[in-house]
Design a protein that fits this description.
This protein is α/β, with parallel strands linked by helices and 288 residues long. 48% of the residues lie in helices and 10% in strands. Helix 6 packs parallel to helix 9.
């Protein structure tokens, strides 16, 4: 991925080294919650659905004190990379929103280490990257990228960019009012039906990540040979079916919240190939 000369976003909030109080109580429980936690450990999730089940909310505080932290050159380069990718998503979505007569509002990307307090509650790094609609912020502990490479065998800078683009996709859904409608519907549904809506929401975010990649390549020629394959590999590596199989040896489709590996790959590619928001209507698709 050609990113070194890209514009760095100014909307990055660096909280690495900032101490956060540990949770005293945890919500959820039982085998169903455990399954959700196992999935959440491997990839960013919608916190209004998942975070409440792993101990968010409550009286968690974030101290203004920072532990002395020295970042390696590799970590500094990665932080720069994240800022450039965020800036590129800003450029793309400002253009696409303007073309539709709308105004895009930039999200904030928060870098943290270990744990963080968001408007959606307390979260630990094990949750993975996530977007909080309550404060319009994307949260990421950069150690996730090590897990993406080593645990999920999904290396490459464009695989890392895909993760950010997916979470920014949730921000786009929030701005368009899609997330709010889905959450309202979920309140009136069974857990299985609510999970099915969650899958469609997540697959749409994958598709929106593909839309970003389409336009970033068209306008700024950021892609190099093998980049799309990196993104598809990352999407495949974090499918619900693959993660559940790795975690316990079998899968339960009714508990899926993000979609299968094949679905995630297909919707990212659909967004990349078509480049239009209309290509990403997962809610009316008869086949995911």
């Amino acid at each position: 991925m050609r990113w070194e000369n890209g514009r760095k976003s100014e909307n990055v909030e660096d909280r690495r080294g900032k101490r956060v109080s540990s949770p005293t109580t945890f919500a959820g429980g039982g085998l169903g919650a455990l399954i959700i936690v196992l999935i959440a450990m491997y990839f960013g999730v919608d916190p209004t659905i998942i975070l409440q089940q792993i101990g968010v909310g409550g009286n968690h505080t974030e101290s203004s004190h920072h532990e002395p932290v020295t970042f390696s050159p590799e970590e500094n380069v990665l932080a720069d990379f994240v800022a450039v990718v965020l800036g590129d998503t800003e450029d793309t979505w400002h253009t696409l929103f303007k073309a539709k007569g709308n105004t895009y509002q930039d999200p904030i990307l928060v870098l943290f280490s270990g744990a963080v307090q968001s408007a959606c509650g307390f979260a630990q790094a094990a949750v993975g990257p996530f977007y909080c609609p309550a404060d319009h912020k994307v949260y990421i502990d950069l150690s996730f990228y090590r897990d993406l490479k080593e645990r999920h065998q999904a290396p490459g800078d464009f695989a890392q960019a895909y993760v950010i683009a997916h979470e920014v996709g949730h921000h786009v859904q929030n701005l368009l009012g899609i997330s709010g409608k889905v959450h309202q519907q979920q309140q009136q549904l069974s857990q299985v039906e609510a999970n099915q809506l969650s899958v469609r929401l997540e697959l749409q975010a994958d598709c929106l990540a593909g839309v970003w990649a389409h336009h970033a390549q068209k306008m700024r020629q950021i892609l190099e040979s093998g980049d799309i394959e990196e993104a598809l590999n990352a999407a495949s590596s974090i499918g619900d079916d693959r993660l559940q199989k790795q975690a316990r040896g079998y899968v339960t489709p009714e508990s899926f919240t993000h979609g299968t590996s094949a679905q995630r790959m297909r919707w990212f590619k659909q967004g990349f190939d078509g480049g239009q928001l209309t290509n990403c209507n997962t809610f009316e698709a008869t086949q995911l």
